[in-house]
Amino acid sequence: MWLPLVVVMLSCVAEQRGSGAERVRRTGVLTWGADAQGGEPYAMEDPDAPGGMRGFEVELAEALARELGVRSRFYQNDWSNLIPSLERGSFDIALNGIEVTPARSGRVLFTRPYYLFHLRLMARANDATVTGMESLRGRRVGTLANSQAWDQLQGAGVQAVPYEGVEEPYIDLEQGRLDAVLMDDIIAQRYGMPRAALRVVGDVGEGYYAIALRPGDESLREELDAALGRIARSGELRAIFQRWGIDNPTEQRMVEWTDAQTRELLSTTRAPRLGWGQLWLFLQASVVTLLVSVGAMVLAVPLGMALSLSRLYGPAWLGRLATLYVELFRGTPVLLQLYVLYYGLAGILRLDAVSAAILGLGLNYAAYEAEVYRAGVLSVPRGQFEAALALGMNTRLALRRVVMPQAFRVALPGMTNDFIALLKDSSLVSVISVVELTKRMTITAVDVRSWLLPGALCAALYLAMSYPLSRLARRLEARLERG
User: Which one is the CATH code of 116-208: 3.90.1150.10, 3.50.50.60, 3.40.50.300, 3.40.190.10?
Assistant: First the structure.
């Protein structure tokens, strides 16, 4: 019964062997990775054909596959992890507005570029103080993490704020959470410029999109270079750009591009490094993680206790409301709750990113704490509460002096477990632009071209924050047990 499975596994391994061009021809498919969240005009889901894709890079992938005599197949992958997924063999090429940067050119192979973009700086229309990059020193500027714009901001003396999506930075700029946004002109044209409250400051740089491949796939790169050259010279490449409204006279450089220009573009590399500067950034991110986690737990503990007591001892209507709260926050993803709180309610509740992170995680974990405390209270024999009432205590005094001290001892392990889980779940707040420990690790891993050392350092810092809490909780449990 194991023979068919072994055969399938061996065939999969065989398909990964050989040069890139041979592998693609053997399978008859050119697999490419991209992120549909990046949206128009790169690659996105086709609303007219459920399950299908559209975008100028979708058309480009199809044209390249046709030139190679194979079919194209799209693989969804988060944009920030496209390069690591490419390296592990998830697909043949990464094609999704991937900019040629020194950090990437020393890590993967790049084809000749297929699109020339400009870095476009935008600010609020009513903010005349933003006149260029020099006017933004010390101020908050949003962009995509690990992009060319991110690298430029890092060296400009500004407070670069990383995002994972392309629309969120412009929302924050409108709401006054940012002073400016620096993005590729294609992104700015689609998501920033249509907003009446924003204005274009100017273009402050240029760069190139190219296709990324794994080292060792030089034969596939050569064939893709030749295919790109053919569709560029035939006019098909600029025709694709025109259909998506991104063509301009500078794109003629892609038609006239030479191999010598490719060699010059890819000649600049940067040596990997994980120095004291990066270690200091990790420590700063650890402080942010601890601040968010402690702040959220400080909110979750009293709110959770109030919810549990409302369900057990409050009037019926209050108990139903508390039950509804617990089921709502426990039954929906915390990631969704953070998005709604920070972006969905931005017009009503204008919070900075750290405050929204603390509030969002605190409200979510209050639902879990409520169940922990409810279990603790129910573990105390009902007769003790009734005896306290018979001695003349009112409900509040009986709970405070008789029930809750015993319930706390039962609930303490659950509380400790929840706080450690909260410490790790704080990594989710990176979606609302908080640079906590895990986000810092991902940024650094791309920069130094390694996930092992940054990942090990990140794990060590998480352990250093959570282990003392575990020890403290065990000592407190032992002390309560003796009492």
Answer: 3.40.190.10
